[in-house]
Amino acid sequence: MIIRxxxxxxxxxxxxxxxxxxxxQKHSKEWLECNFNAFPRYLIYVAEIESEIVGYIIWMxxxxxxxxxxxxxxxxxxxxxxxxxxxxRRLIVESLPLVTEQLAVKGSTLKHILVTTRADNYAQELYKxxxxxxxxxxxxxxxxxxxxxxxxxxxxxxxxxxx
Length: 163
Known about the structure:
alpha+beta
């Protein structure tokens, strides 16, 4: 598996991942394309296995290009038939050093990471174990259910990509 920066050639396959992972959401290709075109505010990385995009991660810089960046893990998606294989974990762990390289281009370092996710999403444990995110608060009925806001403070980039 290869984790790499998404290209415009990946949009159609990444949109299939989005459509499969988030069935209530619509206009997958248009939504991803908008984010893709907002580089470097949005940094999108894909997981590729044998020329097939099986997952992606979107990192978003919050509140401007700052010397100490606050990122949001905006979205993490893996094809349903590939879930439970460690792809999401690898997307987080292997893309973060690539994100910090992009931040360095603007003279910035990583400070904190925000994550919002459904309160019942088992991925909370993934965010805790990979980046040290902790639940700060619950936001009632934000999207389709209650959401939790998680924050990973003073993030240390994982160096072990053997996940």
